[in-house]
Design a protein that fits this description.
This is Clathrin/coatomer adaptor adaptin-like N-terminal domain-containing protein. The protein is mostly helical. It is 58% helix and 1% strand. Strands 1-2 form a two-stranded antiparallel ribbon. It is elongated.
Length: 834
């Protein structure tokens, strides 16, 4: 039994040792493959033992230990700890064959290269060597790190590296070179001329992968050198649809500034476009179907100007809000007014995104609506406030709704605003009342209905709603100075329930301003206000004093009013507020002390002597009504977005409503049309058919121009080919290929890339004709049909030749080639299928 127990104990010990070794092996393998079960928090362990271990790990032969040491260093950098003491040990690993180790080394060098410029220069040779590596990722990474080292001494070396990478076969490396240009310029501005030459070379690149970065470099180094853009303008327009999203934003910004200096203003008088009623659905495609014809029926634009608008139009469907806003900027600032309606629906679509994006879009919409409210009139319901909207979103939506209010939608808008007034949020309810007032001021015909709705709010239980309603009613009553007595009487009856100082002051002002129509009510209002004068707010006290002065000027002989007014002045004389005391002193001197003084002469007779001061006071007394009861101008409610229209749409300055560093306003339109011949560069070609081959290959983004790639003929708006005629025959033949060439089409078929392949196909076609000519009856029928079709084709060819003679020498040569091929009898035409 004892032996059995001893064997069991030994077996248990061996099993424990085995499980420990297995677990250690599993953990070790997991760390090698990046599948560590524990979190990466152990890299942030800053104990002295771990820090001493880093140097040993960096000098280790194993990549795994080097990775651990470098990760600890990067973790220390993220915590703000200075680990520059390990700089020499890190630089040793810059030539490692492990890409992950190189990346970490590059991150460390970017952080401490400025502090250790001498040691950083030791790694420059390694970076220069990496510029010739076979892997494009290593070449791009080396250039990125070289340009990121902020040491002015190496700026000539960085410039040479950029020049070398500009001609790299990989589009990814060329893109990195474009990113390095602004860094080199900020490091050494004296290299500007050389960098401009590099940008000129990069502008000739036909890769849509790099063009966005090139334009960003252009905007940083030489944003006003439009002479470099002239030969590439049309290419940029055509490449716009294929560029990356942020590249599209940069290109659109450049083309906007370019167009403002090279084209004439399409809206010289800024006419208001006619309001088009559209009852179609929000996501209907009617606009996209008619978009091509709408530009032709509008103001006659420069062909390049029209090309820019047509190239930007598809980007309104982009998923990126910045791209959509940039295209809206193009159409708002460059397009004819008749075409600007195309930007409204894409902008409204962005209101379904995050609230930060909503705020930016709404700020731009509000600015557009101040100048062109007709753009967003069909989309009024899209601006209705939701319960989940933030306060800043609600305010902008209310502002936009009041800006786009018309006779057709005012009833719907007022009904919606009445629901907002019922909100328990006091700020939102008062903002809705202010919106009702802006609608009434903007549309005087609806003032009556707005007033009736506001008068009903006087009996609301919400003090803020009542106060704001009184303030808005006061503004509206100034628009109609006649027939206000009944409304003012209703306001005076509500004085006991109204406690907000601004509302009470507004009522007292209305009573005093229109006291001529309130002969019985106004004195009683003054009597009641005198009782509560001491307890009133300062702004209310001032209006009570003004009310007494106006009533006394209308009835100077009324002793009751005189005594009542003097009582109010005596109360104001000892008030704590010096403004109230000064106002009382002014009115007392103006009204009550303008009486003649009685004096006794030497002979004892009492006479009246008028001094020069009394004469002046009499003049003031005669004009007292004009001074106190002069007509006040009707208020003009200004939009909160007023003043934003001086900024460019889509800019940060517009959102903040003030200029910021780096903002440049758009240049003014030229008075005379500039010469556009500089844009007629036929050597620059770009076709969307250039394919991105693969990210891992050195030919990524490479493109070889084809003989079929032609610059867009912007002089002819209609297409130069007929699609119906092109698709008449189901079976494509060599004759169809040649016709496509003569029509300027690019007909890509397998095996037809070179002239040798075309000759081989012709021989195969002739062989097929010989094989098919076994039956004599079929030959006769085919020959008769061929003669008939050849006669029809000859007539068609004569018409095509007359049209193609006007299109250029290339098409004439292609037509001659077609005729020669027909004469040899190598082209067999198949019957047309109906």
């Amino acid at each position: 039994m004892s032996e059995y127990l001893s064997k069991a104990a030994a077996f248990a010990q061996n099993a424990a040792k085995l499980s420990k070794k297995v677990s250690e092996g599993i953990v070790e393998n997991a760390r090698e493959f990046g599948l560590e079960a524990t979190s990466s928090g152990h890299y942030f362990d800053t104990s002295e033992e771990k820090m001493r271990d880093i140097k040993r790990q960096l000098d280790s032969r194993h990549d795994r230990e080097k990775m651990d040491g470098l990760k600890r260093l990067i973790a220390m950098i993220s915590k703000g700890r200075d680990v520059s003491e390990f700089f020499p040990d890190v630089v040793k690993n810059v030539a490692s064959q492990n890409l992950e180790i190189r990346k970490l080394v590059y991150i460390y060098l970017l952080r401490y290269a400025e502090q250790e410029p001498d040691l950083a220069l030791l790694s420059i040779n390694t970076f220069q060597k990496d510029l010739t590596d076979q892997n494009q990722l290593i070449r791009a990474m080396a250039l990125r790190v070289m340009s990121g080292i902020r040491v002015p001494v190496i700026s000539p070396i960085v410039l040479l590296a950029i020049k070398k990478c500009v001609t790299d076969l990989s589009a990814y490396v060329r893109k990195t070179a474009a990113h390095a240009i602004p860094k080199c310029y900020s490091l050494d501005p004296s290299q500007k001329d050389a960098l401009v030459d590099i940008i000129t070379t990069l502008l000739k690149d036909n890769s849509s992968f790099t063009i966005g970065s090139v334009i960003m470099a252009f905007n940083e180094v030489c944003p006003h050198r439009f002479d470099l853009i002239h030969p590439h303008f049309r290419k940029l327009c055509r490449m716009l649809i294929d560029a990356d999203e942020w590249g599209q934003v940069a290109i659109i910004g450049l083309l906007l500034r370019y167009a403002r200096t090279q084209f004439l203003n399409p809206n010289p008088n800024e006419p208001r476009a006619s309001k088009k009623k559209r009852s179609r659905a929000f996501y209907s495609d009617e606009d996209s179907e008619k978009s091509d014809d709408s530009l032709e029926n509008s103001f006659i634009l420069d062909p390049d100007h029209e090309l820019l608008l047509r190239s930007c139009l598809p980007l309104l469907q982009s998923r990126n809000s910045a791209v959509v806003l940039s295209v809206a900027k193009i159409f708002y600032h460059l397009a004819p007014v008749e075409e600007t309606y195309k930007l409204s629906r894409p902008l409204v679509r962005l209101l379904r995104s995050h609230r930060e994006i909503q705020y930016v879009v709404l700020a731009n919409i509000a600015t557009m609506a101040t100048q062109r409210p007709h753009l967003f009139e069909p989309h009024l319901q899209q601006f209705f406030v939701r319960s989940t909207d933030s306060a800043f979103i609600r305010n902008l939506k209310l502002e936009i709704m009041t800006l786009i209010a018309t006779e057709n939608n005012i009833t719907v808008l007022l009904r919606e605003l009445q629901e907002y007034v019922k909100s328990p949020n006091k700020e939102f309810a008062t903002a809705a009342i202010q919106a009702i007032g802006r609608c009434a001021i903007g549309m005087p015909d609806m003032a009556e209905s707005c007033l009736s709705g506001l008068m009903k709010l006087l009996w609301s239980k919400n003090d803020a709603v009542v106060a704001e309603s009184v303030v808005v009613i006061k503004r509206l009553l100034q628009l109609r100075p006649q027939d206000n007595a009944d409304l003012i009487i209703q306001l005076t009856k509500a004085l006991d329930q109204i406690t907000v100082p601004m509302a009470r002051a507004s009522i007292f002002w209305l009573v005093g301003q229109y006291a001529q129509n309130l002969e019985k009510v106004a004195p009683d209002v003054l009597r009641n206000s005198a009782k509560s004068f001491i307890n009133e707010d300062d702004i209310v006290k001032l209006q009570i004093i003004n009310l007494g002065a106006k009533l006394y000027s209308l009835n100077p002989s009324d002793q009751v009013l005189n005594l009542l007014f003097q009582y109010v002045l005596n109360l104001a004389r000892y008030d704590l507020n010096y403004d109230i005391r000064d106002r009382a002193r002014l009115l007392r001197g103006l009204i009550l002390k303008n009486e003649q003084k009685d004096v006794t002469s030497d002979n004892g007779e009492i006479g009246e002597v008028q001094s020069s001061d009394s004469i002046k006071s009499n003049i003031l007394k005669e004009n007292l009504k004009q001074i106190l009861l002069c007509e006040k101008e009707a208020p003009s409610e200004e939009s909160p977005s007023a003043g934003r229209d001086r900024f460019t749409i889509g800019s940060m300055a517009l959102v903040l409503n003030h200029s910021i560093p780096g903002y440049e306003p758009l240049p003014d339109w030229p008075t005379e049309k500039p010469d556009g011949s500089a844009r007629n560069n036929l050597d620059e070609t770009y076709s969307r058919s250039q394919a991105v081959k693969g990210f891992g290959s050195d030919s990524f983004g490479g493109y070889t121009p084809s003989v079929y790639d032609k610059p867009l003929n912007t002089n002819n708006r209609k297409e130069v080919y007929d699609l119906d005629r092109f698709y008449d025959s189901e079976n494509s033949s060599d004759d169809d290929n040649l016709r496509a060439k003569a029509s300027g089409l690019r007909y890509d078929s397998i095996g037809d890339e070179t002239s040798e392949n075309e000759e081989d196909d012709d021989e195969e076609t002739s062989n097929d004709d010989e094989d098919e000519s076994e039956d004599e009856s079929e030959d006769e029928s085919e020959s008769s049909e061929g003669e008939e079709e050849s006669s029809v084709d000859e007539e068609t060819n004569e018409e095509e030749t007359s049209e193609e003679e006007e299109e250029g020498e290339e098409e004439e040569e292609q037509e001659l080639l077609l005729e020669k091929t027909r004469e040899k009898g190598k082209v067999r035409e198949t019957p047309k299928s109906r």
